[in-house]
Write a structure and sequence with these properties.
single chain; 366 residues; alpha/beta; Rossmann fold; six-stranded mixed beta sheet; 18 helices; 19% strand
């Protein structure tokens, strides 16, 4: 447990909390971008340890949550075909589309399989040449290299029955969308450490300078998060807006250059629709023309499927830090993990799921 327990040390936790209390003199709103950070904050009660002046709000860093409803419906249309084996990470199977989810397709006889790597889907395509195998390539920059490698591998092996339904999104454009909104409340950012492990944080100084906002690259353990919060609060109190790295053991400024090269080889930027938020310009990736033979959206002609969000679900407001899950009228009532209205309740990184799981007893007594 070395290199893990030391980042959960109770004595160091108390010292960091005391330091945060000492430097905090004004109210501040800080957003953690990543859903994994949200779950760690709720699981470890970090939000309850902080002084009342500091409010943590939760960002759009859950890839399952921001996969657009229309892309989920396109996935359902493809997965329902008898000639298709549809492969996906497990989180996506219970994400509701307009009328059903991938579990429903599987229950009705569709060949929907859970995989743990996109390369598993390539192997399934090799083993089933009579079927068309589709992998649901969702995620932020963290999943991008592996998803890109599956396409490179399939092309190198001459596999003709493999394709990907791409829903790749990127963090910096989402930050611009949040900070540029007239309803923005965010005054400081905790950047996602695993995204920065791939991409570095060379893109963030321009964001910090444009919006005069501090950004601190942060990990996921309690000590990581408290260190990131402390560094952010210090900047806010001092009136500075720099990009700092509180996750140096994992993240460098330039990031993983070989991984970035793979991404550039396979993908190119595109506009992307985010579930609950809407279209964000140049916030996603799509396959480059030279890999069009692996584009499931084109191969199965599902690009014309368009849908509308449920009016009961306010996940878009939650993903932008404007509301917290308990402020949704449907939270814990019409919307539960068993019967979710939106992806933020069903995803393992969703903010609604985090509040439901870790703050349930507290909320019941409100």
């Amino acid at each position: 447990m070395r290199y893990l327990d030391e980042f959960r040390d109770s004595e160091l936790t108390r010292k960091l909390v005391d330091q945060i209390r000492q430097v905090t003199h004004h109210p501040w709103v800080i957003m953690e971008i990543c859903g994994g950070q949200t779950h760690s904050i709720m699981q470890n009660g970090i939000d309850q340890l902080l002084p009342p002046e500091i409010e943590l709000v939760h960002g759009p860093g859950c890839p399952v949550c921001v996969t657009s409803l229309e892309l989920v419906d396109r996935a359902l249309a493809i997965a329902s075909r008898p000639d298709v084996i549809f492969c996906s990470f497990g989180d996506m199977l219970r994400v509701p589309g307009s009328s059903k989810d991938l579990f429903s397709v599987r229950a009705a006889g569709g060949q929907v399989r859970i995989v743990y790597s996109p390369l598993d889907a390539v192997k399934i395509a090799q083993a089933n040449p009579e079927k068309k195998v589709v992998f649901f390539a969702i995620g932020f920059e963290t999943t991008g290299p592996a998803n890109a490698m599956s396409v490179i591998q399939a092309k190198a092996l001459g596999i003709k029955n493999f394709s990907v339904l791409v829903s790749q999104v990127t963090v910096p454009p989402a930050m611009h969308a949040i900070l540029g909104s007239p309803d923005n409340r965010v005054q400081g950012f905790l950047a996602a450490g695993h995204v920065c492990a791939i991409m570095g944080y060379w893109e963030y100084p321009a964001v910090a300078e444009k919006y005069k906002i501090p950004i601190v690259v942060t990990g996921f353990e309690p000590i990581d998060l408290l260190k990131g919060i402390l560094m952010t609060v210090k900047q806010l109190e001092q009136g500075t807006h720099n990009v700092e790295n509180a996750y140096e053991r994992v993240v460098s400024f330039e990031g993983n250059l070989p991984a970035q090269a793979i991404l550039k080889k396979v993908f190119e930027p595109c506009d992307r629709n985010w579930r609950g938020i809407g279209m964000i310009s140049m916030s996603g990736w799509k396959l480059r023309p030279e890999f069009a033979e692996f584009d499931a959206e084109q191969l199965f002609e599902v690009g014309d499927i368009h849908t509308q969000e449920s009016p009961l679900c306010v996940s878009g407001q939650i993903l932008q830090g404007r509301l917290k899950p308990p402020q949704c009228p449907a939270f814990g009532k019409q919307c539960t993990p068993e019967f979710p209205l939106g992806a933020t309740m069903v995803s393992s990184e969703g903010a609604c799921a985090a509040y439901y799981r870790y703050a349930r007893e507290e909320l019941n007594h409100e």
